Amino acid sequence: MIASTVPSSSKSSINLPTYATPFKSSFLPSSFSIPPRFSPSTPRFQYLTITNVLKTADSPNLSSTASNLDSIFSNSKPTILVSEKLGDAGLDLLKSFANVDCSYNLSPDDLCSKISMCDALIVRSGTKVNRQVFEAAKGRLKVVGRAGVGIDNVDLQAATEFGCLVVNAPTANTIAAAEHAIALLSSMARNVAQADASMKAGKWQRNKYVGVSMVGKTLAIMGFGKVGSEVARRAKGLGMHVVAHDPYAPADRARAIGVELISFDHAISTADFISLHMPLTPTTSKVFNDETFSKMKKGVRIINVARGGVIDEDALLKALDSGVVAQAALDVFTEEPPKDSKLVHHENVTATPHLGASTKEAQEGVAVEIAEAVVGALQGELSATAVNAPMVAPEVLSELAPYVALAEKLGRLAVQLVAGGSGIKSVKVVYRSARDPDDLDTRLVRAMIVKGIIEPISDSIINLVNADFIAKQKGLRISEERVFANSSPGCPFDSIQVQISNVKSKFASALSDNDEISVEGGVKYGKPHLTRVGSFDVDVSLEGNLILCRQVDQPGMIGMVGGILGMNNVNVSFMSVGRTFRGKKAIMAIGVDEEPDKSTLKKIGDVPAVEEFVFLGL
User: Fold this and answer.
1) Burial (CB count <10 Å: 0-12, 13-18, 19+), residue 368
2) What is the Cα–Cα distance from 197 to 501, expressed in whole angstroms?
3) Which of 138, 443, 487, 556 could be a cystine partner for 494, CB 3.0 to 4.6 Å?
4) Where do the TM regions start and end (predicted)?
5) Given phi > 0 = left and psi -120 to 50 = alpha, else beta, which region is 77?
6) Confidence label for 500 from pLDDT (cuts 50, 70 and 90)
7) Distance CA 189, CA 45 (A)
8) How much is the pLDDT for 580?
9) Is 381 helix (H, G, I), strand (E, B) or coil?
C-alpha cells in the first residue's frame, strides 16, 4: 500500500451552495468543449471525447466529455494568432486546421487586445507572453507555442494558473544550433571575422591574426542536452577533448559519446574553450559572473548560442579587458537587439544576431514541429514537448481513456452527494491495481477527479495543466493510496474509489463505515461503471443521469419505481439493486435518459418503502 498527497494551501475549503433539493443537471456546466482533430485529407473536423484533458470554457456546445469515444463533426474552427514570422510549411498546416491570424510586431497592448479572440498563440523569442496576456485572454487561450527551444519569454506560472498549455519545438533546430556553435568556435579560434573585416578595410595583417589550434584542447560544454550533445560529437571529430557539466544529464549517454561529466567548477577551471548550452532560469541567470570568471584558466575562450542572460555582460567585458577571457563568440544577448553594446564592438568578440536556428532547413522544421504541437494540443493530445504539463505517452493515454472518463464521473457523483453548505477540504483517491505501484501513472486520472469535483460547484475550468494548482488554491487536499488487487495486470486499475471526508451527505447511504462519502467504480467493456456506493454494491453504467434510492428490500419495488418513471415519460436505460442482507436495506440505482421533473421525483419519494433518494446529473 502506497500513499501520496497533493498538499493543500492555507486557504479555506471549497464551499458548496445550499440547495433545498438535490443537485439537478442545470447546476452543472452546460457542456465540455472537444477541440477538433486535424485531418489533412478532409476539410471536416472530427471531435474526440478524450480531449477533455485540455478542456476550456468557450468552445462549441457538445455533450459531456469522455462519455464515449464516438466521433462527431463540426465546421467550427479555432483561431490561432501567429505573432512572429513562421515558415510556410508550418503556416500551411495551421491554415488547414484553423483560422490563422498572422500579425507581426504587435505592441504589448495590441497583443492583449487580440488575444481574447484566440485559442492559440505562436511566438518566437521576441514576443513576451506575460501574466497580462493570460488575463486578457479571459480563459479562451488554450495553447501557447514557442517556435524554438527557450521559453523564458513565457510566464509559465501564469500559463499554468490559467490552464494554458505551453509547448515548444526543441528538436528541429538542434543541428542548426550545434553547427552554429562549431562555426563560432572555429571562426573565433582562427580570427576569421576580424581578418575578414581587416581585408575589407584594405589591410593585410597576417601577423596580427594568428589563431590557436583546437586539436587536443579541452572543450567544456555547459548544458548537455540535445544541442550540447551534438556540439560534443562535432568537437570530438575536430580532435578536442570534451567534458561537460549538466546536473540532469545521464552519465551513460555522455559516456556513449565519449564525454566525461564533471562538476561546474572543475569544468570552467580546466577548459580552454567553454560552450554554453543551458536554459535561462532563475538558477542560471548571470551564472557566468565576476566570481565565475575568476576561476577560469587565463586565456579561455567562450561561445554562447544559448541565452544571453546566463552571462553577466559587464563581468564578461571586464574579463575580456583583463585577458582572463581571450575571446568570446556570442550569438545571444541579454537585450536583443543589443543597444550601444561595448561587447559587440570589442575587438576580441565575434558577434552574430541570434542566428543559431537560422538555416532554411531548421526554420521549416521548427515551423512544422510547433504547428504539429499546437494542433495536437488543440485536439487535446498531450504533446511530448509540453513544458508545463506532465508527459503522458500516447499508448498510456489510449489505455487510460476509459479510466479518465470514470475518474471525472466519480468526482461529479461524489460532489453532488455532498449536502449544500458543507465545505470540502479533503479528498482521498484509492486505486486498486495488480500492477507495480511504480508503473501506475495516476496524474491524469487525479486531474480528472479534481475536474469532476470542482467544476460543477465553481467557475474554475480544470484540465491536466492546472488541476493540482487549482486544488491547492481552493484549499483542497488530495491524497492518493495504491492498493494491490489480485486481478489481471492487463488493466491499469481494477477500481478507483473517491472518498470525501468531514462533510454531510444528502444521501446518507453514500456514507462509508468511516462516515465518508464514498463512491467506487471500474471499467467494463470499455465503459465506466459505478460498482459501489457507501457500503452497497451496485453495477451501473455511468451514462446519462442517475437516481439512487434507499429502500426496504421487498418485492415489487423495481416495478413500482419504474412504473412511476414510465408514466411520466422518463426512459429507464438500466437498473441495478444492491443490498446488505435479504429483507433489510437495499439501494436501487436507476439510469434515466431524461431529467425527471419535481412532481415525478416527489412520487418516487412518496413510495412508503423508499427511505431516501437523490437525483444525480452526469
Assistant:
1) buried
2) 75
3) 487
4) none
5) beta
6) very high
7) 55
8) 62
9) coil
Give pLDDT, residue 42.
31
User: What is the rounded average pLDDT of the residues 47-62?
Assistant: 34
Catalytic residue, candidates 124, 140, 277, 354? 354
For 95-217, strand residue ranges (E) read 99-102, 120-123, 143-146, 165-168
Catalytic residue among 260, 291, 335, 336: 336
- State the Cα–Cα distance between residues 439 and 451, nearest whole angstrom: 23
Q: Phi/psi at 339 (nearest 5 deg)? A: -110, 125
Identify whether the C-beta of residue 163 lies closer than 8 Å to the C-beta of residue 56.
yes
**Are the C-beta atoms of residues 404 and 444 closer than 8 Å to each other?**
yes
Burial of 612 (0-12, 13-18, 19+ CB in 10 A): middle
Return the residue matching grid coordinates 500513499: 3
In Å, how far are 24, 373, 485, 490, 589 from 562, measured between CA atoms? Answer: 20, 50, 36, 38, 11
**pLDDT of the residue at 31:** 28
Kindly give the residue spans of alpha helices, DSSP state H, lying in 98-147: 108-115, 131-137
423-480: pLDDT as tens digits = 788 999 999 998 887 777 788 899 899 989 988 877 667 877 888 888 887 888 999 9
Give me 303's grid cell. Answer: 561561445
The dihedral built from the CA positions of residue 276, 282, 286 and 290, taken in this order, carries a sign that is negative
Q: What is the DSSP string of 400-448?
A: HHHHHHHHHHHHHHHHHTBPTTPEE-EEEEEEEESS-GGG---HHHHHH
Determine whether 354 is an active site residue: yes
List, for residues 104-134, the tens digit of each pLDDT value: 999 999 999 999 999 999 999 889 999 999 9
Radius of gyration over every alpha carbon of the chain, rounded to an integer in angstroms:
30
Q: What's the half-sphere exposure (Cβ side, CA atoms, 13 Å) at 591? A: 14
- Tell me whether the omega of the peptide bond preceding residue 528 falls within 30 degrees of 0, making it cis: no
Alpha carbons 435 and 161: distance in angstroms, whole number? 33
- Measured CA to CA, the distance from residue 360 to residue 255 in angstroms comes to 32
Kindly report, residue by residue over 328-360, the tens digit of the pLDDT. Answer: 999 999 999 999 899 999 999 999 999 998 999
Cβ atoms of 601 and 579 within 8 Å: the answer is no
Report how far apart, in Å, the C-alpha atoms of 323 and of each of 188, 205, 207, 306, 328 are: 15, 21, 19, 23, 11
- Point out the least confidently predicted range of 169-178, 353-362, 458-467, 514-523: 458-467
Active site residue 307: yes
- Does residue 38 have a pLDDT over 60? no
Q: Could you tell me the CA-to-CA distances from 117 to 79, 141, 313, 359 in Å, in that order?
A: 7, 8, 40, 33
3-state secondary structure of 390: coil
pLDDT at 304 over 60: yes
Taking alpha carbons only, the member of 181, 180, 210, 186 closest to residue 198 is 210
Tens of pLDDT along 388-406? 876 666 677 778 889 999 9
Q: Are the beta carbons of 594 and 618 closer than 8 angstroms?
A: no
Q: What is the per-residue burial (b if ≥16 Cβ within 10 Å, else e) of 252-273?
A: eebeebebebbeeeebbeebbb
